[in-house]
């Protein structure tokens, strides 16, 4: 499996490369009046309005105000909705073998967190981007963008 390694909220994470559409440089985000609190802002990406959320906040931390050196936006889709996810840094792409996989802590998949992987001697949490938002949150996105996928 090919995975993108990245950091957020002081932790090291990975996501499957196949789940990503692209990696974007930081750009100015615009506020979206009436948007749910989990949306940090939106950006205009080649004519597409892309809601953006911060992984640090999703993990219970705080996303610092303003862009920091190394920040990136991961573009992906959840239930057909294009989204952006702010991460602190991107550490590169790795090819992982099944022998590096470890079961989830407590055997549960919570908030998009799935398996652990042993990479270069460090346990790294896998995040399934399509599972970051709860169904109710995806419903709020549908309400913001009528005509979007259901």
From TrEMBL:
<dbReference type="GO" id="GO:0005829">
    <property type="term" value="C:cytosol"/>
</dbReference>
<dbReference type="InterPro" id="IPR002545">
    <property type="entry name" value="CheW-lke_dom"/>
</dbReference>
<dbReference type="Pfam" id="PF01584">
    <property type="entry name" value="CheW"/>
</dbReference>
<protein>
    <recommendedName>
        <fullName>CheW-like domain-containing protein</fullName>
    </recommendedName>
</protein>
<feature type="domain" description="CheW-like">
    <location>
        <begin position="1"/>
        <end position="138"/>
    </location>
</feature>
<dbReference type="InterPro" id="IPR036061">
    <property type="entry name" value="CheW-like_dom_sf"/>
</dbReference>
<dbReference type="GO" id="GO:0006935">
    <property type="term" value="P:chemotaxis"/>
</dbReference>
<dbReference type="GO" id="GO:0007165">
    <property type="term" value="P:signal transduction"/>
</dbReference>
<dbReference type="InterPro" id="IPR039315">
    <property type="entry name" value="CheW"/>
</dbReference>
